[in-house]
TrEMBL record:
This is ABC transporter ATP-binding protein. Residues 40-279 form the ABC transporter domain. Signal peptide: none annotated. GO terms for molecular function: ATP binding; ATP hydrolysis activity. InterPro entries: AAA+_ATPase (IPR003593), ABC_transporter-like_ATP-bd (IPR003439), P-loop_NTPase (IPR027417). It comes from the Bacteria. It comes from Streptomyces sulfonofaciens.
Length: 297
């Protein structure tokens, strides 16, 4: 573990036999195919807006098969960092390489095709059925493009992802009728349609009840098991929302890295208490975390 600066090599997940639930990820032209090559590499990143520092001296390396959690209080810079990793914004200083491409030297529209970005505030207004919503992941559009028609293979893939995420009975259900949890899982399926190598999730459990949260977490663990080379970064305020397959974590406070590395070394009672400015006690059972206020502090 490190307390600042660059990330350590960390933990690699064991190789798993691909079961056919998800196809192999599409390669990025010009990117190295070696599994050891980082999918994300941010070095000494600073972001300044209107003269105010949002991120300062943040470094992060994510490799295939790693599942990262970005945690911190409101205003810590988590969403800004996720936007950098998803090639949505540029750093003021420092460098960000996504799938082997350096931001500022690559067509961002092409690069975003290979990054699955899940935003729970998806601005869809039309009453599209679940399958149509998932298929828009291929066109990177909110609505279905008028002249675009999916192939039979693409429709089959959409149905497979819908089933994998537990939405099979809701394939024909229209967007306004879906629960918040069902929408979240539909958006994950949408993000996975182009076979990305990287999945970014911005507070995916926001607004979910207990059942919806647990279904979402189970779906994320199933995806990690089915597609071991897929890397992910999940932003949340709540440790209870982390899947059991989380391998690494970064704690952000006031735009700076407090701790970063393998999850067992970062998610400790002392470090999380410092990050959130309140004494807490962490416990982990069956791979999941719980947090309670420390009364003896």
């Amino acid at each position: 573990m490190r307390l600042s600066g660059r990330e350590s090599s960390g933990v690699r997940l064991p190789t798993m036999t691909f079961s056919g639930v998800l196809p192999e990820s599409a390669p990025v032209p010009g990117a190295r195919a070696a599994s050891a090559a980082p999918v994300l590499d941010a070095r000494d990143v600073h972001v300044v807006r209107d003269g105010r520092p949002i991120l300062a001296d943040v470094s992060l390396t994510v490799r295939p098969g790693e599942h990262w959690a970005l945690l911190g209080p409101n205003g810590a810079g988590k969403t800004t960092l996720l936007s950098l990793l998803g090639a949505l914004v540029h750093p003021t200083h420092g460098s960000v390489r996504v799938l082997g491409r350096t931001l500022g030297r690559v067509d961002l529209r092409e690069l975003r095709t290979y990054v699955g970005h899940v935003n729970p505030r998806h601005p869809l207004r039309s009453p599209l059925p679940v399958r149509e919503v998932v298929l828009t992941g291929l066109t990177n559009s909110v609505e279905r493009l008028p002249r675009w028609r999916p192939t039979a293979e693409q429709e089959q893939r959409a149905d497979l992802l819908i089933d994998t995420l537990g939405l099979g009975p809701r394939t024909a259900a229209r967007w306004p009728t879906l629960s918040q949890g069902e929408r979240g899982r539909a958006l994950i399926a949408r993000a996975l349609m182009p076979s990305p190598r990287l999945l970014l999730l911005d507070e995916p459990a926001t607004g979910l009840d207990v059942a919806g949260r647990e279904q979402l977490i189970d779906s994320l663990d199933s995806l990690a098991a089915a597609h071991p080379e897929l890397a992910s970064v999940l932003v949340t305020h709540h440790l209870e929302e982390l899947p059991s397959g989380t391998t690494h974590a970064m704690l952000l406070r006031d735009g700076r890295t407090l701790a970063c590395g393998p999850v067992a070394e970062v998610l400790t009672s002392d470090l999380v208490s410092t990050c959130f400015g309140h004494p807490v006690r962490l416990a982990r059972q069956d791979g999941r975390w719980t947090v309670r206020a420390r009364r003896d502090a």
